[in-house]
Design goal:
There is one protein chain. 56% of the residues lie in helices and 7% in strands. It has 218 residues and is mainly α. The chain has a domain at 136-218. The protein is globular. The relative contact order is 0.10.
């Protein structure tokens, strides 16, 4: 399924404008799929407007730029589950965060001439943390800690690792901000390893060894 993003182009007269770009694995995109992409775009727009109104009603936008901003991102990301039902193409899946950004009005200050790629990453990471219980997310660390954790492709894509951390938090007494400590230890342990290729038995054995080594710090 295709989606639309807005790309900035420079016109012959030097002025800049934004044009719709269709993102799909199919090129050229047939008319019926273009119409479907237009429908998707309207749906995304409606959803994001609703989400921003909800967050505004909760008073969460006042957290922007503050230590507790993770609550804003968690609530935003936990409401993005509608994209799971969109049957996105591979190309569209990679750009869905940009499409969501294009329809935000309150989440970002869009007075800057060119949006930062980091903004799209924030939206993607908010979606990831929104899949977990809030108690786990807030106890694990700050928004900065979560960004550092999810910046690692291995830690982000091998769901077994974060699920192991979540289960560890339930059965062990650990300090707050334990995610930062575990990220460093896990990244060091698997620096030259593709964890997704490891069988469960080996991966969990290694992760439990990491916990034993870091238990005092945690």
């Amino acid at each position: 399924m295709a989606i639309i993003i807005l790309e900035e182009v420079t016109l012959p007269n030097g002025k800049k404008t934004k044009v719709k770009t269709y993102i799909s694995d199919i090129s050229p995109l047939p008319g019926n799929l273009r119409r479907k992409a237009d429908e998707n775009d309207e749906m995304i727009k409606t959803k994001i407007r609703e989400i921003e109104r909800e967050l505004e009603d909760l008073g969460l936008f006042k957290l922007k730029g503050k230590h507790g901003v993770i609550k804003l991102w968690y609530e935003f990301g936990s409401r993005l589950d509608f994209i799971d039902d969109m049957n996105l193409s591979s190309s569209a899946r990679k750009q869905i965060w940009r499409a969501i950004y294009d329809h935000t009005e309150k989440l970002y200050d869009k007075t800057e001439p060119t949006p930062s790629r980091f903004w799209y990453i924030e939206i993607r990471y908010s979606y990831h943390i929104g899949k977990f219980d809030w108690d786990f997310v807030k106890t694990a660390g700050t928004w900065r800690d979560w960004i550092d954790f999810l910046d690692s492709t291995a830690l982000r894509e091998d769901h077994r690792i974060i699920e192991w951390i979540a289960s560890l938090q339930k059965r062990e007494s650990m300090r707050t901000d334990f995610l930062r400590i575990l990220r460093r230890a896990i990244s060091g342990k698997f620096r030259n390893t593709v964890t997704s290729e490891l069988p469960d038995e080996i991966l969990y054995q290694d992760l439990n060894e990491i916990f034993d080594d870091e238990k005092e710090a945690l």
